[in-house]
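Dear colleagues,

I hope this message finds you well. In preparation for our joint manuscript, I am sending the Phosphoglycerate dehydrogenase (Bacillus mesophilum) sequence together with its predicted structure, so that both groups work from identical material. I would be grateful if you could confirm receipt.
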Amino acid sequence: MNALILIRDAFVAAYPELIEETEKLCTNVTVMKTDDGVRKEDLLKEAAAADIIVVAVVKIDRDVIDAAKNLKYIIKFGAGYDNIDVAYAEEKGIIVSNAPGQNADSAADLAFGLMLASSRSISQKDAEVKARLWNNTLGNEVHNKKLGIVGFGSIGQAIAKRANGFSMDVMAYGNYQNEDAAAQLNVRFTDLDTLLTESDYVILSTSLTSINKHFINRDTLGRMKSSAFLINISRGGLINEVDLVEALKSGGIRGAALDVFEVEPPQNELSLLPNVIATPHIGGATYEAIVNISTITIDNIQRFIAEEELLFVVH
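The corresponding structure tokens are as follows:
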């Protein structure tokens, strides 16, 4: 059994047991660290002999699947699998699984950190002090404010749990409506228009689909309060970035905090705006989350080789 592992350099360093345990299970293991990018021709070459591909964010498209003549199983190292052509994999008889919920606390921590940093301009003030400037400006309390969460899965619920500690009025919108969790977390489900018009903070924690791509656009941004902040820890493709730049420049909304972009690293001016806090897709990048995801990954490789039932199959 041959395995190809495509993950960030830091993930390998954080939990080397992922590689070590996979090497015990598979005849050949190839590791491609992805921090500096992966050339398509190199990926196609390495995929050719793979029975199993473990992947974080690198695109596994038709070209890769067609090149991997022996491919039987794709394991998403994380939850969101929009970088994998799942429909084509299914057509080819290739199994795809992921690891949902394993980085929920990590992503929720970041979302809340970005919300707090936005409210008090922490990143901007840090940069000013380092530049020997001392501008003592006013911010806003998060306490008692209205929070709108788009996507109420494991991450959305973890965000709501944290919001309770700040006595926030929490609304949620999305296809997945866990009424029991909402009741326990003091969350009320609402329609998108109400969430956008009433929220002081809007956090995107939903998966990207063909239906919701660019659903944050000129129209939806125009429904938000001019004093509101937009936080995205999910996928950059949820936002029309041209429209967001316009809203941020014109004062349509007060600010944004973005961990994800449509093109990564971002190539446009969005991340450079003074009322934007930008981080390099680190929502799930904690030691704890990497251990959790690695454990699921190793378990599923063992199950696959033993022809046992797999965890978290997505099709």
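For the figure legend, we might mention the following. The chain has a mean pLDDT of 96. The chain has 13 helices and twelve strands.

With kind regards,
E.M.
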